[in-house]
């Protein structure tokens, strides 16, 4: 939803606060309040027109906040004002915005638009991040595996997987993490596996222990 330039809490965030906490998949209240603070900071930086790419004490920039909230309106305004879609991390544990959007516990749509905005502005789809050192496609494969075809989020995750697989290209779809595991290895549901295979994922990929993705129980 659109928001005013008063740096208050957005309508999207207010609506989520009025819903049950399950919508945030167990998001701790402390982190919840932190997100509210980050959002206010992001809008304040946008209003000032400067410092949008300057990380806070947690290493996150304004665009990280928009990605975590999956707020396409805020993200669009930040990117139009010159925010970096893929800022360098000052801490090894700080995920890029694209990873943040996919990993976010906020279940308010539209995730596909947020992913598309970041990719369209040059976010690196092949960048490995997090303790697994995995690509955003591998992360999406794990997150999408928690969604069933009958769930309301199914179509949205289908779009996200297709978009990320297309952006990854022939080589990126089999990019391995630090344990040698590809996105197909990370997939834990049949529909995710089928989607990746239809995009050209190598069925015989194996990790550093020699375990093949095709031999994993699903």
Automatic annotation (TrEMBL):
Superkingdom of the source species: Eukaryota
Chain positions of ANK repeats: 58-90
Key word Repeat present: yes
Keywords, ordered alphabetically: ANK repeat, Repeat
Keyword Transcription regulation set for record: no
A UniProt-annotated Pfam family: Ank
Name of this chain's protein: Ankyrin repeat domain-containing protein
Protein species of origin: Cymbomonas tetramitiformis
